[in-house]
Amino acid sequence: MLSTAALRAHLVRTGLAGTVATTREDSLRSYRLFAARDPRVLIGLDPERDWRQRDLIELMAERCGVSADPAHTFGHDVIDPELTLTALGAFADRLGAVARHGEPVLLGTGHPHRLLGFYAALADALSAAGCTVLTPAQGRCVDITTRFGVRTHHLAYVRGVALVRPPGGERTGCEPGAHTHSPLPVRLALAAAADAGGPLPKLVIGDHGWVCGAGQLGFEAMGPADTNDPALFVGQAEGRVSVVVPLDDAVRPAHYRPLARYVLNRACLSQ
To answer: Is the pTM here over 0.85, yes or no?
Structure first.
């Protein structure tokens, strides 16, 4: 098993935590848009309270380790690796509890080109432990607003992990799916599961709109988030997201493998 010290070193060495690639400018822009309730940054969450940009900076400093100084406006953001390790522990504990009870789960990602392997390892282990890994609404169409306008995608599952693909996206050599922050895919999946008479997930694991969209609908949800994704941390602060792991969500896919091994070992799910 990867030791905590070795994992901490890995987090910092690969830029998953410590100084990350996400810029302070990008994060502050996200906080500003969130405060203005821009749906592109809310990603499915309807905050209960008014969050000012200063409030968000304070929250992200507490939950991620970014600078709490509003006058710090440029450079690279920082994630405290100790906060990442603590959150990974809570993530693993919740994963283990779901596995022990054999409860149904739904996994989905808006970062398939980076995080698909991480979630697929979790899906494989949960399935082997007797959990039903749900795949509702497979092949169904969903219209998602992109920077090029509204585009029709379809919901697909790869190794038990939901993602969306644009038309023709399954061609050989193409990316496994599209990058999206939209909550519409998880809403589609959950509605399809309900319409079919269940089962419904006890836990939704993912990122971006998969977590916020599920949490807003009352489903327990957890996953990783970067410093420019305040919605997940607000959801956690307001009680609609159970666990958020602060880390850079856009490093090389291989760098997430030790995290999956660490989580599965701690959850007693290693095969």
So the answer is: yes
